[in-house]
Design a protein that fits this description.
Layout: H1 3-16, H2 22-42, H3 52-64, H4 69-88, H5 115-122, H6 130-145, H7 149-153, E1 160-161, E2 166-171, E3 174-179, H8 182-199, H9 219-233, H10 243-254, H11 259-266, H12 271-292
Antiparallel strand pairs: 1-2, 2-3
Helix pairs in contact: 1-2, 2-4, 6-8, 6-10, 10-12, 11-12
């Protein structure tokens, strides 16, 4: 079987059985295709016949290319998933990636905005035209719910219940319902009732948020939008599509919210992912203490 055929089977498995998100799917496929290219150009093996030594040489090659620890670790994870799949299908006799171990890296805490910076960012969209109302609704919704950007962009109009003040989002085959604060409900209501009908290209378009061409907004489109408002607000903290999600979780913890409730709202399968924000809040408190206490 050729590399292309092995990768095509792996892609079907990720889509149909693992229900991998679009981003996860793209990352895994990029990694295994790069592995296939390496084997073609540096060895006499293909994906199915590669040895443990050849995979180790590939990891060394990645590091020699200046790839970050995170990138190499992700590539190793992709290879392990690929070969575990091939082994289960009986396409390889053993898993040559089993012994690969990623380098340990210092776990960086996520960057968050202060409450004042959030207020400043949310104040940037000017509700004087369709774009302003739409952008205001998107930013308010992200900070109100802590959902992932891809989850927000996948929302349909029917996922929003303005009367109940909740939004339903889905990720990896799971569904959760998250409440919204009043300002977010108001911004969404204005956008849905007054603006969206004139933006959509077709009357039956299901997408909640559309671009100026009337089609579902892309992640790239939102990235440009949020960087524009960061610059407009003069915020020095680097804002990524996940910054409002991180800020949502940290600010709830700071104000006494139960960590299990936050876990449910974020859609974390493992509580350890949510506990990361508790570490962040403790670090910030310690930094403030050291900065402000006269004897610190």
């Amino acid at each position: 079987m050729t590399n292309a055929e092995s990768i095509a089977l792996f892609e079907l498995y990720l889509k149909d059985e693992k229900k991998a998100s679009a981003n996860t799917l793209a990352s895994y496929l990029r990694d295994v295709r790069q592995l296939g290219d390496f084997l073609d150009s540096h060895t006499d093996s293909d994906i199915e016949t590669a040895t443990a030594e050849e995979l180790e040489n590939y990891v060394v090659w990645l590091r020699g290319q200046g790839k970050s620890i995170a990138t190499v670790s992700r590539s190793i994870a992709s290879m392990k998933n690929l070969y575990a799949f091939l082994l289960r299908r009986g396409l390889v006799e053993e898993n040559p990636a089993r012994g690969l171990t990623p380098e340990k890296s210092e776990h960086k805490l996520p960057q968050i905005l202060t409450s004042k910076e959030v207020d400043l960012l949310l104040a940037q969209p000017e509700c004087v035209d369709s774009k302003g109302f739409r952008d205001k609704a998107m930013l308010e919704l992200l900070y109100a719910t802590g959902m992932r950007v891809t989850e927000m962009l996948d929302l349909d109009v029917t996922d929003v219940n303005l009367v109940a003040g909740v939004v339903r989002c889905r990720s990896r085959g799971k569904e959760r319902v998250v409440p919204m604060y009043a300002a977010a409900i108001r911004a969404l209501s204005e956008y849905i009732m007054q603006v969206r009908p004139s933006l959509v290209a077709l009357p039956d378009e299901p997408a909640l948020f559309v671009n100026l061409s009337g089609e579902r907004m892309s992640r790239q489109g939102f990235w440009k939008l949020i960087k524009f408002y960061q610059k407009k607000a003069g915020i020095k903290t680097d804002i990524t599509p996940h910054t409002l999600r991180h800020s949502f979780a940290a600010h709830l913890l700071e104000n006494g919210a139960d960590i299990h409730a936050i876990q449910e709202m974020l859609g974390h399968a493992d509580i350890s992912s949510t506990q990361l924000y508790a570490q962040l809040v403790k670090k910030q408190l310690k930094d403030e203490y050291n900065k402000a206490h006269p004897r610190a």
